[in-house]
Specification:
It contains 13 helices and two strands. With 455 residues, it is an all-alpha fold.
Length: 455
């Protein structure tokens, strides 16, 4: 890899030639030099982030001795996304994306350095930790959509699923390495060193961003423009100067995005939380211990990596594909709930994780490419708010279901609800968009109604 960021400037074509539009290699996005640098920078950043997260949970326990306080610190950091994601998405649409991402990364690095200083001086208490966690959450409402869209801007549209899949792999690798390095770093250099390392990782990303260049054929983000005069009747709110409210209205009026939200939401509430449901199943009905659940967790992680690779091979993902994969995962979840032994459960867990990972990649690709370029930040902002609701409400709802039905009952009931809801959605859509017959001189031709919504 080149030794200096200046080498990010692209040649007329990528290092391995231009995309021919037919490659399904999961690594095809890495043919572009800037994407390779961006992936490496994200790997460094993810490693630093997971070093800090690993240490921070232990630090809260040391300060308070309370597991509830640990959960509170995580909730405080996640809470701003519920209220401010729309504003963060609007900022990403209105400001130059590279500048926005650079500034947000620098701010996150500054917060990490402040934490490191307070820890080194033994001045960090619970109040200051919660305040800094909230600041991190606020900055993340801008940083998350800015960095997600910046990576997609570097490659042609058909290579976006590859970029998202590579990003998922980078996230998983950074998580594993960060958690491992956290213990080594604290053992030899102290807790403050983990925060310092995270701060440096953010600054590294911020230093790389200015040198990133889109590949040939990559979509160019549109620049916001001020409206001139009064918009013609029936065309207001369609230009690049759309407000936050109009961005929310776009999401609500886009059937495929609403359908994607529905599929993802019901899957998040009644499935996917395998760290909770499978832990209770393994240690309860299957009479396994912590070691058995560790094996299940490892298989889930491996399946997630395999799924990310398979998802990166997609070229034009659709909501229909996301729904089909979610329903398949739900059926596997039902089977897992009925598993008579650990061996059977392990056989089912791998495809469950693979299907979930491919579905996530496909859904993310639809979410980040379906809206017009000037609206994508706000659409991701809407998604951030909705996802926070799922993240905060899903585990308690699932926990209540397990209290009422047990681990097996929760898995089976949840899987049936997911599969049933998605199946009903497919049936309703089929009735709303019936097949029509067009009579031509050559004969009858069957086809979809002209006004049906693409999915």
């Amino acid at each position: 890899m080149p030794s200096s960021p200046a080498s990010l400037s692209p040649a007329p074509e990528s290092a391995h030639g231009p995309s021919d539009g037919t490659s399904r290699s999961p690594w095809r996005s890495l043919r572009y030099r800037s994407m390779r640098w961006w992936s490496f920078a994200n790997f460094v950043s993810n490693t630093g982030t997971w070093m800090q997260l690993t240490v921070q949970n232990l630090l809260v326990l040391q300060i308070t001795g309370s597991a509830a306080a640990t959960g509170l610190s995580m909730s405080v950091q996640a809470a701003p996304a519920l209220l401010m994601s729309l504003l963060g998405g609007a900022a990403v649409d209105r400001w130059p994306r590279k500048v926005t991402a650079t500034v947000s990364q620098a701010l996150l690095g500054t917060v990490a350095f402040v934490m490191a200083l307070l820890v080194a001086l033994d001045r960090l208490d619970m109040t200051s930790l919660l305040v800094l966690a909230a600041v991190t959450g606020i900055v993340a409402t801008v940083d998350n959509p800015a960095c997600a869209l910046l990576g997609n801007d570097l490659v042609p549209p058909e290579d976006v699923p590859s970029a998202i899949g590579v990003g998922a792999l980078v996230h998983s690798a950074g998580r594993l390495l960060g958690a491992a390095l956290a213990g080594v770093t604290v053992g030899f250099l102290g807790t403050a060193a983990a925060y310092t390392a995270n701060g440096l990782s953010f600054l590294f990303v911020a230093s790389v961003i200015p040198f990133l260049r889109p590949a040939p054929g990559a979509a160019r983000p549109t620049k916001p423009t001020k409206p001139v005069g009064r918009a013609p009747a029936g065309r207001r709110g369609t230009g690049p100067d759309m407000t936050v409210r109009q961005g929310l209205a776009f999401f609500a009026r886009r059937p495929r995005l609403v359908a994607l939200a529905g599929v993802t939401g019901i899957s998040a509430v009644f499935g996917r939380n395998y760290g909770l449901t499978l832990a209770v199943l393994v240690t309860g009905p299957l009479a396994g211990g912590a070691g058995a659940f560790g094996t299940v967790s490892t298989v889930l992680a491996v399946g997630g990596i395999v799924g990310a690779v398979l998802g990166a091979r997609l070229r034009r993902p659709s909501v229909r594909l996301v729904g089909t994969l979610a329903a398949t995962g739900a059926v596997l979840q039902v089977a897992a709930g009925l598993s008579p032994s650990m061996a059977v459960l392990l056989v089912l867990v791998l495809p469950m994780a693979v299907v979930e990972s491919v579905s996530d990649t496909a859904g993310t690709a639809v979410l980040q490419t379906d809206p017009p370029a000037h609206l994508r930040g706000r659409v991701l902002g809407v998604w951030g708010s909705i996802g926070t609701v799922w993240g905060l409400g899903g585990p308690p709802a699932l926990g209540l279901l397990m209290e009422l039905a047990g681990a097996r009952g929760a898995l089976v009931t949840g899987g049936l609800i997911i599969a049933g809801a998605i199946g009903a959605g497919f049936l309703l859509r089929g009735r709303r968009n019936p097949t029509v017959v067009l009579r031509t001189e050559q004969g009858d031709v069957a086809g979809r109604a002209e006004l049906s919504t693409a999915a």
